[in-house]
Amino acid sequence: MIDYDFPLWRPPSEGDHLIIQATLGCSFNACAFCSMYKDKGYRERPLAEVLADIDRGAEEWPRAHRVFLADGDAYGLSTDTLAAICDRLAERLPLLQRVSAYATPINLVRKSADEIRLLKSKKLSLVYLGIETGSDLLLKRIAKGSVTQMEAGLVRAAEGGLKVSATVITGLGGKAHWQEHIDATAALINRAPPTYLSTLQLGLEDGVAPRFFARNPDFEWQDDQGVLLELVRLVERLDPPHPVIFRTNHASNALALAGTLPKDRDKLLAQIEAALAGTKGLRPLWMRGL
């Protein structure tokens, strides 16, 4: 049995897949809204330990076909290390179809397009990237780099043929900056579209709220109506040069949507307008969570 170092975080879509901890914690771990990994220091696990976990995982789940490499940004490991991990996964899991990991823009840019293609050939074909916003003002307020870094990471992934599942956070700009947040985010996605785009609705756990509000002194929460207006504005302005699969099905969202943009724009807007009019129900507060 794999002896995980808890807490163990993973994207919701990876919940039914084999998880291998290649790193512990998050190498950045400074985002003002994020409560993950706050009780873990970052370190790369010795390769021998990771390979041993793969062997144990394969014994327990020999038919596993998808693997998520935890923790926070395992894509930051060296290309040689990731290649060795992928090789062992392919050796031990004959049905392996895909390996995925969290990534940051920085560790995407630090790899060449050829390195990304090499890892993709070994089935490491998807990364999860938190964009959060396309606004430099808001990125500075949440201590998460710059739009230039975000765009460079998305572009490098595209150069290597790597699929990106990106997230943005509705409500992040509050009442004062929501239009800038949405307009800049749509502009970023239109310039450098990921494969998948999902929204999370802002929520703050008690441990991180004081730091967030200290960095955002004029912040006022958006209510559900305000967030729905953000979704209208986002969907109206998203016009990527190739199709982007769009979802708002994370448990934090007031309204669950699914479609492909730009093809399904009218359908998505009609659903949001129905929610604004009160004819389409929202997710109850007690069912929402991070």
Topology:
Layout (H helix, E strand, L loop, with lengths): L17 E4 L1 E2 L18 E2 L2 H14 L5 E5 L8 H14 L5 E6 L1 H5 L3 H9 L2 E9 L3 H6 L5 H13 L3 E8 L3 H18 L4 E6 L7 H7 L8 H14 L6 E4 L10 E4 L3 H13 L13
Parallel strand pairs: 1-4, 4-5, 5-6, 6-7, 7-8, 8-9
Antiparallel strand pairs: 2-3, 9-10
Helix pairs in contact: 1-2, 2-4, 7-9, 9-10
Task: Quote the CATH topology.
Answer: pyruvate-formate lyase- activating enzyme
The topology string of helices and strands comes to EEEHEHEHHEHHEHEHHEEH
How many separate domains make up the residues?
1
CATH-level-4 superfamily name: tm_1862 like domain
Instruction: Categorize the overall geometry.
Output: globular
In the CATH hierarchy, the architecture is Alpha-Beta Horseshoe
Describe this structure in words.
The protein has 290 residues and is α/β, with parallel strands linked by helices. It has a single domain, classed as tm_1862 like domain (pyruvate-formate lyase- activating enzyme). It has 10 helices and 10 strands. The strands form 2 sheets. The protein has an 8-stranded mixed sheet with strand order 1-4-5-6-7-8-9-10. Strands 2-3 form a two-stranded antiparallel sheet. Strand 7, helix 7 and strand 8 form a beta-alpha-beta unit. Helix 1 (47-60) packs parallel to helix 2 and helix 2 (79-92) runs parallel beside helix 4. It is globular, with a radius of gyration of 19 Å.
